[in-house]
Design goal:
With about 140 residues, the protein is mostly helical. It has helices spanning about 10-20, 40-65, 90-100, 110-115, 125-135, and strands at about 1-5, 30. The chain is globular and about 55 Å long.
Length: about 140
């Protein structure tokens, strides 16, 4: 029902985010024609994201263990409680709020603010302009 889309654009964006020390991750999925977008499909999307995150964690773990100081580090684990995820249909206004590039906007749907000003900080060499470009991709 869902097919992961991993193209050059996605890879380049992921590399740019990693270079800026951004912990935001994503998965792009295509829905087969005629498939109903419902809660079960959203849960499948969450499962795709979980699998991608675990692959990347295992790759980092394997790389870390090549250093003899870290050979005894245990395999990565992540608590993933997708059954607690509750889908919510968003209004067109709520969707617009999520994609606005306004650092002054507050509230639960202010994704750009959270993306550009996370608690741990970001390091986009090109500053706010580069962050805005990465967010808008």
């Amino acid at each position: 029902m869902l097919t992961q889309v991993e193209d050059e654009h996605s890879q380049a964006l992921r590399q740019q985010l990693e270079a800026a020390f951004c912990v935001f991750d994503f998965v792009r999925l295509a829905v087969e024609p005629g498939v109903e977008v419902n809660q079960a499909l959203h849960r499948q999307g969450l499962q795709h994201l979980y699998q991608q995150l675990m692959v990347r964690r295992r790759e980092a773990w394997e790389k870390l263990r090549q250093d003899l100081r870290y050979t005894d580090v245990g395999e990565p684990q992540m608590r993933w409680e997708q059954e607690r995820a509750l889908p919510e249909l968003l209004s067109p206004q709520q969707v617009r709020q999520m994609v606005r590039e306004d650092l002054e906007q507050q509230g639960p749907l202010a994704l750009y603010r959270a993306f550009c000003q996370p608690p741990y900080g970001l390091h986009f060499p090109g500053g706010a302009g580069q962050a805005r470009q990465a967010y808008g991709q």
